[in-house]
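The methods section describes the discrete structure representation at length, but only in general terms. What matters is that the chain and its backbone geometry are given together, residue for residue. For illustration, here is how one protein appears when written out as sequence plus structure tokens:
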Amino acid sequence: MSKKWISGIIGGGILLLMMGSFVFAQETYYLIGPHIGLPYWQDHKRGLEAAAVELGVKTVFTGAHGNVIEEQVKIMDQVIAKRPAGILVGPLNPEALAPSIDRAMAAGIPVITVDTDSPMSSRLCYIGTNGYEAGKVAADVMAKLVGGKGEVGISNLLGFATCEERARGFADRIKEAYPNMKVVAIVDDQADYDVATKVNTQMILGNPGIVGIFGVDAASAVGMGTAVKSLNKVGEVKLVAFDRDPPTLELIREGVVQASMIQRTFTMSYYGLKMLYDYVHGRLVLVKGKNWIEAQKKGISPLPRRVDTGIMVCTKDNLDMFTE
């Protein structure tokens, strides 16, 4: 047996091993969220992982633990350097994260925004709630609770685009549809339980005529609820919250919070990953025989620009449908 022949067998074996490694290596997709410690984003994580099992791909859930956009930008750039198959991201700030999204797309890494958007970026698609419309629905719910009259407030997360949209939708709807109602105060709860408690207490004390408060982020309910409890105004000040965090649902059960706007968080990341996978694998065809990669280079994408996952209203009457 010649050395040359043996060398050929060894080399061929290494090549086969390399080919096997290439063929069977799992694709990796990332979900980069804001406030990832909140139960809200754990719903996203569950949706991501459920889709990953079905597709047979690997996923990594990461992101910022607070409101620091610089932290999210840094994480996004670190992920880009790993060259994953695709990225789902919920931008803390649409403008600040746009350059990173554009860098990923330019590097051939497809990006879909979930929950929060960056419309000025080159992202492929946004999947999430239309915050403005959700705010309008919340206004209608509040109006029904207070009989269409009285002063109301908003517990907001200032500077966070999605929350600002919800607050704006609420305020605009009150102004245009309910002449006997008025938004008299807006506070920044910073999506923090302690801060939310403090600022909502101050809002109620500073506006003794207030009959309702709309909380736009997942931490608002705890702050609003604690405030009305401490001031003995449970039921007197109606509370409309956002999302289905366990503390929020418990406050609804207790009758402290009257309603919460529930998003389809699991759905966003579940279908977000599936859309990324279909895009990466060329399953989405606009015209038979046309190269979808070339189409994308020319600004043509087979994906929708926006997918509105809508809103659901949780009250004490249907609470069991939203609890685990």
In short: The radius of gyration is 24 Å. The chain is about 50% helix and 20% strand. The first strand starts at residue 28 and ends at 33.
